Fold Alcohol dehydrogenase GroES domain protein.
Amino acid sequence: MKALVYEGPGKQAWTSVPDPGIADPRDVIIQVTTAAICGTDLHILAGDVPEVDPGRVLGHEAVGIVVETGSDIDDLVPGDRVLVSCISGCGRCAYCRKARYGQCRRGGWLLGHMIDGVQAEFARVPFADLSVHRLPSHLSDELAVLLADVLPTAYEVGVLNGNVRPADTVVVVGCGPIGLAVILTARLLSPARIIAIDQAEPRLEAAKRAGAEITIKPDEDPLEVVRAVTDGLGADVVIEAVGAPETFELCTRLVRPCGRLSVIGVHGKPAPLHLEDLWSRDVTITTGLVDTYSTPTLLQLVDEGRLDVGGLITHRFTFAGIGDAYRSFADPVSSGALKVMLTRGGGAAPGGELDR
């Protein structure tokens, strides 16, 4: 089969790899019908996730058709259309028993990280009895893929960890797909206002459509704007959705005393933590890897039309165009890309490789 293979920092190729097979009784094999590119994939390619070995198939967001099941899987059969969660939980360890599947001692974030992922024609999915969700027939692949990672990450790591409450002022720094999903899911908790910060005008426009009341570029003095609408106090909740030292430091200045700062961004470099300024302000800082315990709830909201997420999808490519897909996603200022979808429909990209 063909798959996108990581070959070391800055290097990747759409190339031939062996077909996956059942390795554990709780596995399933799926034929991937739709996959998505995540910002974490870009962090891997930049060398920010050193535990990913060269030769790894990338990708952790997919919808597909079950083609084979392990002997312990009795609730899925070949032909089922399913959502593959980005997190694989064994369901038996101490963390899984607390629904902290992201910290599973046998699983966690495996796909495209510790085992081969789903930007491929076929994929092996471990612990499928807990990490695979059968989909309603009328829900499109594209909308379903957003539930693999983007929506539960935004909701759990951003909104819930940030303890968003009714009448809060919420600031979202970074309006990529995750940041926009934070805006959409934060509205479920009825904040008084949501303020979005990003350097790309198309993403700020998307933030307005998602529900942000105020949009700011970094060079427009975000601290002054936020203080102006909060009686000089700062935001109740600030959510960092970029993964850069400078955006984390900005967030620490935007949050008010007794406020909450939730970090979603994947950080590949150390970020400054000015405890000399923060220690007396009673600020709560949270980080986290998604657990995906909210996926069934979010799936119901999307399925019933109560969470409109279609606006997150901007670009569509077949696997044959995966090189162009990655280039568009990596340059959102020029391309206007938010969530980029990949579907079946071709063989290798021209020349079999992406640009190096």
The two ends are 22 Å apart (CA to CA).
